[in-house]
Amino acid sequence: AKERGGNTFCLYSLTEEAGAVRSMKLENGLRTSIENEQLHLVYQPIIHLQTKRVVGLEALLRWEHAELGSISPAEFIPVAEKNGMIIPIGKWVLETACRQLKEWHSELPDLCIAVNVSTRQIYEENFADTVKKTLDDSGVAASKLTLEITESLMQNHNFSNRIFKRFKEIGVNLSIDDFGTGYSSLSVLSSLQIDRLKIDQSFIQQMLEHEKTGSIVKTIIDMGNNLDLELIAEGIETQEQEEALRECGCQYGQGYHISKPFPPEEMFRFLSVRSK
Ligand code: C2E
Ligand code: CA
Ligand code: CA
Ligand code: CA
What we know:
- This protein is an alpha/beta fold and 276 residues long.
- The protein is built from eleven helices and nine strands.
- An eight-stranded mixed beta barrel has the order 1-2-4-5-6-7-8-9, surrounded by five helices.
- The relative contact order is 0.12.
């Protein structure tokens, strides 16, 4: 930056400094985010596309920083993965989601929940035990919980097979998130332990604009159906996308066109109206 000189230099280094200050605030802020009660979950419905019934909710993490305001998980999850805070935060997410689901079960006993899990969490020695204990403590049946994981985990076959076996013993469902964006898309499908694929939203949003993307979506759906996997299309933003997916044989869908993610009270109202 030195040779830039003049105003350019000033601007450049100021921006850089601001960036470094922000990273440090995020990094430090995360360490106290749980005890300062700055984390909360919002919930987005997943519907059965034929009947439009809500079959489950995905829990999505939100962080309200005292000074910086609300921060996107896309920004802070990578920081938490780096500084290790993803472990206690991930545990908090799992516990909070299960506790919330238990509460909803008194009115909506069939409701399921999906929780995002970082690869870093799964690599923790006792992660499966944490899942089991959280289910036992909350009184939620394992069959009502889905763990959403990414394809990157599947690159280590020996490890993933072992840990997935444990998850199957416990009885939780496994879903591959952002399917189609990773390296190992096809080999993932041969794992017996996977229950669901979530087709990445970038495909869904382009499926009607780009013919080739549309073909990819159809191919994933056909493949999933042939392999007896449940398919969830994420990021549905229009009625046309929803209809096209239904016609292609995709069972489940999620996206702003159906509902944005909402805090628990609003979500409960949404669910009560929908289930009447
Ligand atoms: P994801 O798991 O792929 O979650 C879907 C993201 O797409 C969410 O963003 C959701 O709000 C957004 N979304 C839903 N429907 C639509 C739509 O129709 N259009 C568009 N454009 N977006 C839609 P969000 O909540 O900002 O989360 C971003 C990512 O952060 C998630 O992507 C997930 O990878 C990660 N994340 C969120 N919560 C957690 C968590 O508790 N633990 C971990 N490890 N990661 C999390
Ligand atoms: Ca997800
Ligand atoms: Ca996703
Ligand atoms: Ca199955």
